[in-house]
Amino acid sequence: MSDPVYQVIGEAADVAENRGKAYMVDGVQIAVIRHEGKLYAVDEFCTHADASLAFGHVKDGCVACPWHYAEFDLETGAAKSLPAVEAVKTYPVRETEDGKIEVALG
């Protein structure tokens, strides 16, 4: 298995604590979310109703859909509460020493 290939997608300073930001990366829409100082990257849209998780509520290691409050684990993408039952995909993400966000899609 090869190491993930990271690409720069933006400035880390653009993602505030307990907030998200949407990015389009090689045709894939993702949400980058900062929680407890760490960046997470997940599919942008809720698996229940396609609301943008970039605008979700972040708390206790989860992001909640802004429409119906379905929660997703930021580490695993697992659906943690109804009405969502399907997980969102997660992606490797990191903050570089020079303040950039890098993500690997696959």
- Describe the strand arrangement of the main beta sheet, using strand numbers: 2-3-4-8
In CATH's first tier, which class applies?
Answer: Mainly Beta
Mean pLDDT: 97
Write down the Rg: 13 Å
Give the CA-CA distance, first to last residue: 11 Å
CATH architecture: 3-layer Sandwich
Order of helices and strands: EEEEEEEEEE
Provide the number of structural domains.
Answer: 1
**How large is the share of residues in beta strands?**
35-45%
Please identify the structural class as seen in this structure.
mainly beta
Reported by name, the CATH topology is Rieske Iron-sulfur Protein
Q: Care to count the β-strands?
A: 10
Shape, please?
globular
Low-confidence runs of at least 5 consecutive residues: none
The main sheet comes to: 4 strands, antiparallel
What is the H level of CATH, i.e. the homologous superfamily? Rieske [2Fe-2S] iron-sulphur domain
Q: How helix-rich are the residues, as a percent range? A: under 10%
Helical element count? 0
What's the quick description here?
The chain is an all-beta fold and 106 residues long.
Give a verbal description of the structure.
With 106 residues, the protein is an all-beta fold. Helix content is 0%, strand content 42%. It has a single domain (7-103), classed as Rieske Iron-sulfur Protein, CATH 2.102.10. It has strands spanning 7-11, 19-25, 28-35, 38-43, 57-59, 62-64, 71-73, 90-91, 93-95, 100-103. The strands form three sheets. It has a four-stranded antiparallel beta sheet with strand order 2-3-4-8, with no helix packed on it. Strands 1-10-9 form a three-stranded antiparallel beta sheet, with no helix packed on it. Strand 2 and strand 3 form a beta hairpin.
